[in-house]
Fold:
Amino acid sequence: MEETEGFEVLLVGGSPQPSAPALVARLAQGAGAVVAVDRGLDWCWAAGVRPTLFCGDADTVSPDALAQARAAGVGGDLHPREKDETDLELAFRQARLLAGAQAPRVTLSCVSGGRPDHALAVFGVLARHVELWPRVVEDGFECRVLGPRGRRSWELPATACGKTFSAIALAPGTELGLEGFAWDYERTELGMLDDRGVSNVVRGASARLRCHGGCVAAFLFA
Structure:
């Protein structure tokens, strides 16, 4: 699948350590729709963003944020707390519905802070939806989840030179190629959650990562 323009959906998660309001507002400006995922509704209002939809079981969102959403006419996809899917998984379902016939491109923020088990599960969800070209943008990093079923490569901007970069395999059989880094390789296999891809450094003005197989979370740190 080649990278083309498409309908972008921003998912604002309910992390107890949210991204800066200015970042959430900037990401929302470039999105065709914004889904507030449970406590993510609070982070949307804090950023001055009116979400398209609320999605979740309302176990962390504040009553004031919910009342404000009702008053503003924000649509709701409310679920019981005892359920099989996480709120984020349900939000991906809504992203597909909002995009209609076309597959959306999904950006996420406010999803990585707080409990480590939640953060790890987030990347499991992203790997399942790799065909939607998911990326996480937060204050200290950007992460893109790559794989042959979705976005295969990432051409880093020239401003990335000198920054820390990590690649973590999210599936068995992950094969990567790196060019323009302190440690380059044409094609190598990383085991799932292997630490060999941690703490590389961008050395070139046109660094590039390509995922030949499996699925990888590629992190560029600020």
